């Protein structure tokens, strides 16, 4: 679920804590310059969401009172609006002014389609995020088939200077679908060879009623195809430091069991993290959680200010119905919104128990 909410997280999976939020994902606007066939944020949100001063009030509270492991600006497209891009840069400066560098310093990252970054080159150089994810779903033709003609070239023209500026803070986040899963080795190889990209965080497509059904990865042989695509990375030739991560949520029981049976992830623990090194130098990393993560570990704040559990973010048409609260209800106080989530009936609906009972069991298991 983190991959969908917060992309790669810059390769840092937060440790399990039951006393504060780990990941706060912000859908900062309802605007995008592309119309991707697989976008779960496809339904148009309110044209006017929270104002910049309201976002910054919420962010100040988050940095001061909640101090999550990571805050991710995740869309719709952060760089499609100057005001939302400005909130990202101001958030980094705000974090730097509130939190000293150290163990519990909140990391700030962003997910983007990469096509509009050129106009923010100087601002990025002066205010680096801890990670920046670019969503690339294929080589030129495959990517354009998903995201629209010309999308690849508009994105690719920014890659050389981004690699130079960000180094290993720059991650690529392919979404595996029926149309591209078998091409994963080619996608990784071409982006490495052509642009020197080395960090990839792979996610799995979650179809909705309003997204393209033909992109859904077929159930028959699904897990074998995923593993075959990952193992196929061994055939791309000797490489230097390529890392490919596969992250999936607690609901994907069949895939998790397959990875456990194949010895690729451990069979015990709340968070399962493992690594496999291929002979050609590619490093495969797997991560999953064995429990739900919403409300106690991962939350989305929508464009209009709704506080939504991680498991409820995929169906954007249900945000109003499933939201815990509007952050304005608590005067943009992130800690109070977090506490309201733990006490809300939605927690028990998701977990089958109260937050007190769940977190007590969690503490004993970790």
Provide structural commentary.
The chain is α/β, with parallel strands linked by helices. It has one domain: TIM Barrel, CATH 3.20.20. It is 35% helix and 17% strand. It is built from 14 helices and 13 strands. The strands form 2 sheets. It has an 8-stranded mixed beta sheet. Strands 6-7-8-10-9 form a 5-stranded mixed beta sheet. α2 packs parallel to α3.
Give a nutshell description of this structure.
The chain is of the alpha/beta class. Helix content is 35%, strand content 17%.
Tell me the series of helices and strands, N- to C-terminal: HEHEHEHEHHHEEHEHEHEEEEHEHHH
How many helices? 14
As for the CATH topology, it is TIM Barrel
Walk across the major sheet and give the strand order: 5-4-3-2-1-11-12-13
The CATH homologous superfamily is called: Aldolase class I
CATH class: Alpha Beta
How many E-type strands? 13
CATH architecture: Alpha-Beta Barrel
Strand-residue proportion: 15-25%
Biggest sheet character: 8 strands, mixed
Sheet/helix structural class: alpha/beta
What portion of residues is helical? 25-40%
Instruction: Give the overall form.
Output: globular
Q: Termini, distance in Å?
A: 20 Å
Regions with pLDDT < 50 over 5+ consecutive residues?
none
Radius of gyration: 19 Å
**How many structural domains can be distinguished in the coordinates?**
1
Overall pLDDT, averaged? 92
């Amino acid at each position: 679920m983190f991959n969908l909410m917060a992309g790669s997280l810059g390769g840092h999976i937060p440790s399990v804590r039951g006393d504060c939020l780990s990941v706060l994902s912000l859908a900062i606007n309802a605007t995008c310059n592309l119309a991707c066939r697989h976008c779960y944020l496809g339904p148009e949100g309110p044209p006017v969401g929270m104002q910049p001063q309201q976002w910054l009030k919420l962010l100040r509270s988050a940095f001061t009172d909640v101090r999550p492991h990571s805050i991710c600006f995740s869309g719709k497209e952060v760089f499609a609006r100057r005001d939302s891009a400005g909130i990202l840069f101001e958030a980094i400066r705000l974090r730097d002014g509130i939190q000293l560098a150290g163990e519990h310093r909140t990391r700030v990252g962003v997910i983007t389609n990469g096509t509009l970054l050129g106009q923010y080159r100087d601002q990025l150089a002066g205010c680096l995020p801890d990670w920046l994810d670019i969503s690339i779903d294929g080589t030129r033709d495959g990517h354009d088939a998903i995201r629209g003609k010309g999308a690849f070239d508009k994105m690719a023209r920014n890659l050389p200077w981004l690699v130079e500026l960000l180094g290993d803070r720059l991650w690529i986040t392919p979404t595996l679908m029926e149309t591209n899963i078998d091409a994963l080795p080619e996608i990784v190889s071409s982006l490495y060879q052509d642009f020197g990209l080395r960090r990839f965080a792979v996610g799995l497509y979650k179809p909705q009623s309003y997204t393209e059904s033909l992109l859904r990865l077929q159930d028959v042989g699904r897990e074998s195809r995923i593993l075959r695509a990952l193992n196929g990375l061994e055939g791309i030739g000797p490489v230097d430091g390529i890392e490919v991560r596969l992250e999936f949520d607690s609901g994907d029981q069949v895939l998790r069991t397959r990875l456990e049976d194949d010895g690729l992830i451990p069979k015990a623990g709340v968070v399962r993290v493992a690594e496999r090194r291929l002979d050609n130098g590619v490093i495969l990393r797997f991560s999953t959680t064995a429990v739900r993560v919403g409300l106690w570990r991962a939350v989305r704040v929508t464009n209009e200010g709704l506080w939504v559990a991680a498991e409820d973010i995929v169906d954007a048409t249900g945000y109003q119905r499933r939201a815990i609260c509007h952050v304005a209800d608590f005067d943009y106080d992130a800690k109070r919104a977090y506490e309201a989530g733990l006490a809300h009936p939605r927690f028990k609906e998701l977990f089958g128990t109260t937050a007190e009972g769940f977190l007590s069991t969690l503490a004993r298991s970790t």
